[in-house]
Amino acid sequence: MMDIKNNIMNITVKTLFFFLIGLLLASCEGNDADEDYGYAYLYMPQATTSGGLNADYQVPSGGGENTYNFNYDAASQRLDIVLGVIRSGKVPAKAYSVDIISRTDTTAYISEQGLIENGIVLPEGLYELPETVSVEAGESSAAFYLSIDAQALKEEAYAGKKAIVTVGLSNPKGYEILEEYASTVVIIDVEAIRPFLSGLE
Description:
Layout: H1 2-34, E1 41-43, E2 56-59, E3 70-73, E4 78-87, E5 96-102, H2 104-112, E6 119-121, E7 127-128, E8 132-135, E9 141-149, E10 162-173, E11 176-177, E12 183-189, H3 190-193
Parallel strand pairs: 1-11, 2-12, 6-10
Antiparallel strand pairs: 1-4, 3-4, 4-9, 5-8, 5-10, 7-9, 10-12
């Protein structure tokens, strides 16, 4: 009888011990989840699509749903390529803004060095970018467009070519820029895009 009582007591103590340990771990995990962590930097997610090999961003891109990283507006005949800015780290989400620029020097260098097969510089007059992107407090990211004159892509000069535009971040307010991913080399496969540009004559 004494052995049975001892066994019951041991089981009860062990059960209570593991229950208290579980509560303690859950409490720690809950507190950790509320803690800030990581470094807060601004960067372009499109600059990371190669996994760090380069800043190339193919249009169209990948397969499945990732193929359609652009929109075509038939009424305005504009090809809008989806880009964006995001803040890294789990930190208080204060408002921020950053200027959007075209890095024409980078684009020219890529073309001159032949770094992209069949690459051709897309002239500044054929595309538009927003001057600034602003992100409200409580948000971490925002999308914007590289808007291109789709009619120009029908010209013979672009047949079989890959049109290049380098888009970058500059003059941040609120957070610093992560320079490694501050620019995206947008590479537009003209032949792959043309079938989507319906109604262009």
